[in-house]
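Quick check before the chapter quiz. The format below is the same one you will see on the exam, so make sure you can read both the input and the output lines.
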Amino acid sequence: MSKDATYKRLIGSRRWQLLRRAVLTAHPLCEECEREGYVTPATEVHHVIPCENATNTREMENLMFDDRNLMALCHYHHVQKHMEMGRSGKAAAKRKNEEHLSRVVARFFGETPGGVF
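Here is the expected output.
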């Protein structure tokens, strides 16, 4: 499941804002920096298991709001986590664009890219 309307609704909800604030209040320092021996304020909350992995709305809600699935991170480590997961950077952007192209072609032409049109 991609960052669709459901994800956008949940991440913009009051419930998420309150949970995010609670996580950052409980963990004011970046959890990764602490492991490395640094003291850096946490400014972002990371979903350990990405909400996009959900196969339905209920599962996405469970991943979104489960405080055991959240980490308080600084911006640097949040980006690093996403890069490790292959969810950011040039390679990830290229892969996402190829996946999007495949869906569009399949929807409108009933075949995958590289097929005969």
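If your answer matched, good. The mean pLDDT is 85.
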